[in-house]
Amino acid sequence: MTRRIYLDHAATCYPKSPVILDAMHDFSMHHEAAVGRGAYRASQHAGQIIARLRRELAAWIGAAGDQEISLHPGGTAALNAGLLGILKSGDHVVTTAAEHNSVLRPLQHLVANNVITWTVVPVDAQGQVSADAVLAAVTPQTRMVAVVHAANVNGAVQPVDAIGRRLVDRFDPASKPLLFCDAAQTFGHLPLSVTQAHIDVLAAPGHKGGSGPLGTGFLYVRREAQDRIRPTVFGGTGTRSESLEMPHDYPASFEAGNLNVPAYAGWLAGLRSRRDHASPQETLATSQGRLAELASELYSGLDQVPGVRVIGRPHVPVLPVASLAIDGLAAGDAAMILDSEFGIEVRSGLHCAALIHAAIDSPADGTVRISCGETTMREELESLFAALAELSR
Amino acid sequence: MTRRIYLDHAATCYPKSPVILDAMHDFSMHHEAAVGRGAYRASQHAGQIIARLRRELAAWIGAAGDQEISLHPGGTAALNAGLLGILKSGDHVVTTAAEHNSVLRPLQHLVANNVITWTVVPVDAQGQVSADAVLAAVTPQTRMVAVVHAANVNGAVQPVDAIGRRLVDRFDPASKPLLFCDAAQTFGHLPLSVTQAHIDVLAAPGHKGGSGPLGTGFLYVRREAQDRIRPTVFGGTGTRSESLEMPHDYPASFEAGNLNVPAYAGWLAGLRSRRDHASPQETLATSQGRLAELASELYSGLDQVPGVRVIGRPHVPVLPVASLAIDGLAAGDAAMILDSEFGIEVRSGLHCAALIHAAIDSPADGTVRISCGETTMREELESLFAALAELSR
Description:
Two copies of one chain form a homodimer. Chain A is of the alpha/beta class. The first copy, chain A, contains eleven helices and 13 strands. The first copy, chain A, has a seven-stranded mixed β-sheet with strand order 2-8-7-6-5-3-4, with helices on both faces. Chain A has a four-stranded antiparallel β-sheet with strand order 9-10-13-12. The first copy, chain A, folds into two domains: 5-16 and 280-391, Aspartate Aminotransferase, domain 1 (Alpha-Beta Complex); 18-275, Type I PLP-dependent aspartate aminotransferase-like (Major domain) (Aspartate Aminotransferase, domain 2). Chain A has helices at residues 18-31, 41-61, 75-86, 101-112, 131-137, 160-170, 261-275, 280-303, 331-342, 357-360, 378-391, and strands at 5-6, 69-72, 92-96, 117-121, 142-148, 178-182, 201-205, 217-221, 308-311, 321-326, 344-345, 347-349, 367-371. The model of chain A has no long low-confidence stretch (mean pLDDT 96). In chain A, 37% of the residues lie in helices and 15% in strands. In chain A, β3, α4 and β4 form a beta-alpha-beta unit. At the A-B interface, α1, α2, α3, α4 and α7 of A face α1, α2, α3, α4 and α7 of B.
């Protein structure tokens, strides 16, 4: 394959760091073993990787401890474990129109089966929800407030921390709804402390901003909330094997079956090497600066291409993610031509987000989405702008 | 790490073929992209890998078509998707005491929540269930008969095909209970045709006998049974993104979220290279012969070690898997000493199987389990026998 101008980082990051791939290869070649199942050293070594990864992830999100992190094969699996594991009959959920279908569809499943009721708080034309509107939707029956940290369609960052503070101010700890955050588009990209933002449950994949390979994700559940969640996937845990019941201890009981240790070894290596000897917070501050710079370049460049309309431009572009429409060209056709004629890879359509498009006024066939990563170069964006100018001519 | 004598293949196969690792590395380095989400060629290339893997897997299990295969991040995830996706309120399930906890625990969850009732058919002292007893437990309310192809504790192969034939003989197609098979210990090891055995649903991991890496698994659902199964994990499917409801089309609707394409690329390469230009059936026949030979060597060797008691010796050893107890030595201690003094890696305990141990008369702390793969060498077994002789002296 020739040189790729890859601008689909919101789907998965590319290229993955060689450090990740090397660690996966090394583990598979020399150390592979099932974790938590064997008394032999290779199995215990695998257990150590898992323990170190939990600790590393806890540090990246400002969690109090490593036993607040469970590992999952992706962001969607982690979101499902959190949502379906917590919500019970009669619960009310407040969520937003900016959510990805990996939050909306599990919730809709519970709504359709009369398990929960929900209120979907609208977003404005920039894809932004207001903390006021979210708080106004909370009722005494509300058990969960689920807010995405950043919308995947246009990168709009939601006021999760303001919502968290206001929930803490309004409720006593025993009756406070759980604040649930989908950090798929921001984990590893932007600083977010679950402690400071008063987030109770958070889920994210490893393979987007998170310096991990595909096949990885995690769930954070604050210790105080762990007695409110039950496993949704059942199987061998390597513990209490004589029991037909799943053990109830988080996180182990949420990790039934063989963990994908090579992938987790790669993830651990990716996170460690990315921050080198800096703290996760320092690394995230640097990342935030770089991404804001790219976001600014992206949006100002798009503004200068005639015939291109930016869809749902965020109030303040923080992430280098943009949706656009091109005069006279369907989104899917535009994406195909960008690839075949210019080697530029972008995504088109509705981006697995059912509810945001009406507010931001997307065309019926959706948008062309540009999403950059930290490694995206200015020349790649310039190639994009030139290609778009040709397409819209 | 020094040379490992790895005899824990029932947990995961080691070493993985370099072909698998090379394909994963190549995909990640050059072709990585989200599948089913992009109009660009790299994304379509990822889609082609998935399509080819479905077709390959269908051929290995004798399925009628590739659209009967959904991909999952492991055997446990696939089993859960099958069991929890099919069973509904009021269903009766017949299963066996030989099942792994990845079948027993999802079922027990449904029993405990008064969703289903179940009958667990006992096994004999060899860990074997009789087809007669299974059929006798089937009632007009029975919606599913769930039988493991081979027990993971002692390798006892269950009469799945006889059960399948007799269900077909006894019921008309509209009222026949679904035959559900956990093939975790046999996929890629032993021939099994879902068509010939009248299996309606089958699940297996890729990383045991299946020539794949960790992080892979699949579910087979016969076309005629697909309208009886609903997704249990909800999220983005890349299709009908405007809808809050999951699409109902199997297999795509069972694969929400980003597929782990590098792992699936490795799995495809592993299966292809293993059979070279032979058919899967020819390859499996060769594998069956090799494993039977190893099983015979393993069991006759164990017989000659004084102080070693074989637990639940199968009527006819087909798989090179054996459980044993050593006079005067706890299973966990034996496994630790085998590793630390002899470099031999085996598993001890109950092996995530809650119900088989009473019948086969395991010690309270479980058994030492030896499990070989096709690559296990005679000299490795001889090292094992010598080490066991020292341990039991």
